[in-house]
Amino acid sequence: MNKSNTQHSALGTQGSATDIAAFTARLSSYLKPEDTAQIEAAYHLSDSAHAGQFRKSGEPYISHPLAVAEILADWHLDAQTLMAALLHDVVEDTAITKKEIAERFGKAVAELVDGVSKLDKIEFQTEIHAQAENFRKMLLAMARDVRVILIKIADRLHNMRTLGAMAPEKRQRIANETLEIYAPIANRLGLNSVYDELEDLSFHHLYPNRFEVLAKAVKAARGNRREVVGKVLEAIEQKLKDCQIEATITGREKHLYSIYKKMQGKSLTFSEVFDIYGFRVIVKDVPTCYLTLGSLHQLYKPIPGKFKDYIAIPKANGYQSLHTTLFGPFGTPIEIQIRSQDMHKIAEAGVASHWLYKSGDTEINEMQQKTHQWLQSLLEIQSESGDATEFLEHIKVDLFPDEVYVFTPKGKIMALPRGATGVDFAYAVHTDVGNRCVAVKIDQELMPLRTELKNGDQVEIVTAAHAKPNPTWLSYVITGKARSHIRHFLKTMQYDESATLGERLLNQALRALGTDSKEITEAQWEKLLNENTGKNRLEILADIGLGKRLNIVVAHQLLAVTETTEERKHVPMGPITIRGTEGMAVQYARCCRPIPGDPIIGFINKGQGLVIHTHDCPVIAKNRADTDKLLDVEWDPEAPKKAFDVNIKLIVANQRGVLAQVAAAIADAGSNIDNVSMEEEDGSAYTTMNFTLQVENRIHLANVMRSLRKIMEVVRITRVKGVVDRRHG
C-alpha cells in the first residue's frame, strides 16, 4: 500500500469529521439511514485503527480507505461493500482481527475484507510466487463474491492516482502489475472507464516521456481538428433530426494508451493515427440503434470491414454497441459508437450495474450470467493447476481475449480468444468433450484439431469414447481452461502409470530380498507411511516409478531389516519385462531409439521415471558407474505389437525420383515415415537421407532395410544410434 508507518503527531481523527459527514450525505440518496450509520461506525473503527499511520504523500492513512469507499459509492454499491472498503487494510496493517470485524459488522463484511487482504504473513520463496499466491487468493474470493474484486479495483485505482509519492522502482512494478492484471480484470468485468483510466495511469508511470510527448501531440491535434469535429457533430445532429431520431451525441477522444498501442502494433507515427477522435450516439432502444446506423451510412460512406455489431453478438463482459468507421469530411476517418441508454449504463458500470440499476433488464441479467460463468471457470482452473504461478499463467491468457465469435451446430454463439483452436472450443463446450475430441468440423468440413478458428465459423467436435488428451495439444491451445485440463489429465495419467510401474519395481526388489510382496503386512506399510508423513501407499509407489525413490531402499524399509531379515536368502534381482504399453511411466531414449529385439538396459531418471536405452548406447556408457540407477530390463515376447521410432541413414545416388522409390519401399514393408531430412553437397553425385521410421521390432526393421537394399540407387544403409535427430533433439 502507498503508506508509511512514520509516527507524526497524535493525529488520527482531526479534520476527518467533515470528510465522513460529506460522504454519508452522498449515501443517503440510495441507502437506508441504518446502513449509513453502520458505514459511519466502520469509518470510525478504521480511523482509530490506522491512527498514527501516514501515506507516503504525508496524508493520514484513513484518506485512502475513504477514497476507495467513495469510488465504490459512485457505482452505488451496497452497504456491506462500503464497510469492507473502509476496513480493507485493518486486518493486514493493524491489530484488529477478522473475528472482531465479523462480530461488529457481520460475517459477510469480514469475508470481503479477508478476500481483499494480502498474504503478507506467509513466507514465500520468491516475490513472483508471493504475488501469484495473492492473486490466486483474490480471484478465488472473487469467484465466491464479485464484490471482492470491485473493492480491489477501486483500491488499485486510488493507489494509481496517488502513485507519484512512491519510489521510481516501486512505481514501475505497481504500474506493470496494474497493466498486466488489474486493467484487464476491469475490462473483463465491463468497467470500461476504470479500464481506460488504469491503462493511462500505468502508461504514465511506465513510460513518462512517451506519455508526455503523446499527450502534447493529442492536445495540439485537438486544436487543429476542432473545425472538422464541429462540422461532423453538426452534420450528425442535423441528419438524425431530419430522420426524427432522438439522440444524445457526444465527442469522444481515445485514451492515450489505446493510441500508443495502435502506434506500436501497426508501426504508425502519430500523424498516421486519424481516429483519435470519435463520436458516441445514445438512443432510446435497439431498433433505433439500427435506424441511426442506416442514417449515418447515408450521411458519410462507411469504410469496408470497419463495422462491428456488438448488439447481436455482445462481448464476453456484456458490452453492447454498434461500431462503424466512416469517411468524414476531407477524407478523415470518423469512428462512431451507437448504443441504447441501457447499453450505455452497462458499458460504463459493467458488473457493478447489478447494484447501480436494480431493474429487471435482460441485458444486465445476461451480463451477470456471463460474469458468473467466467468466475466459475476460475474455480475449475484453480482445482487443476499445480501451483499459484501456473494458475496465474492460465488466468493471464483469459484476461487478454481479443475475441473470436463462433457458432455451435445448434446456433449458440461462443466467444473465444483470438488464435483459439478446435481443442480450445472443445474444452469450452465441456471438459469431457475436450478430453475425448479426435477431430473438428469447421463449416461441415473435417479439419485438424490445431486449426485456428475465425469469426463466424460453425464448429462441431468429433469425439471417440477411448480418446484422451495428447501432450502436443499444449503447444497450440491458448485458453487457460484447455491448458489446465490437459495438464491435469496428463499429470494424473502419468501418476497412475508410474504407480503401476513402481509396484512392479518394488515387487522385483522384494523378490531379490527373498520375500514375496504378498507377505508384506498392513502393519509394515503403516510403519513406512508413518515415517513418510503426508504420503499414502499410491504416492510411494508413484515415487518409485518416477525414480524419486529407489525400489531396493523402500523394500528394505518395509522389511525394517532386522536379524531375521538379514538372514533371509538374497536372490539376484530378476529383470523387469517391458511390454511397450506402460504409457508415460516408461520412456524410450531418443539418443539410441531402442526397439524390441535390441539388448536393453533401464536407467532410473529422477522425475522422468524409467528410461530404456540400448546396451551399447554412448549415454549409458557414461553412467555405468551409477549402478543404483541402472536396472536390468528385457522385452516381453508376449507383448502386443506397437510402433517404435528408429533412425536410419541412407546414402543414395543423386537421381530423379529416388526419394519416391525409397518412400514406396518403406510403405510396402509396412513401415511409416515419421520424419525425413536430406543432406546434399553442391555438385555431389550422392545424397544423404535421414529417416525416422516406425517399426514393430528388429525383425520388422531388417525387412525394411532388405527392401531398401534392392533399390539400385541405394549405395549404403545404416541404423543410426547415439545421434539425436534434428527434429527430436
Please tell me about this protein's structure.
By secondary structure, this protein is α+β, with helices and mostly antiparallel strands. It has 4 domains: 3-206, Hypothetical protein af1432 (Orthogonal Bundle); 215-358, Beta Polymerase, domain 2; 488-635, no CATH class; 644-719, ACT domain (Alpha-Beta Plaits, 2-Layer Sandwich). It contains 29 helices and 21 strands. The strands form 6 sheets. It has a 5-stranded mixed sheet. Helix 22 packs across helix 25 (551-559) and helix 28 (658-668) runs antiparallel to helix 29 (698-709). It is globular and about 85 Å long.
| Beta-strand residue percentage | 15-25%
Return the CATH topology of the largest domain. Answer: Hypothetical protein af1432
Figure out the total of helices: 29
Q: Uncertain regions: pLDDT < 50 for 5+ in a row?
A: 4-15, 119-125, 356-361, 561-568, 724-729
Roughly how many Å apart are the termini? Answer: 48 Å
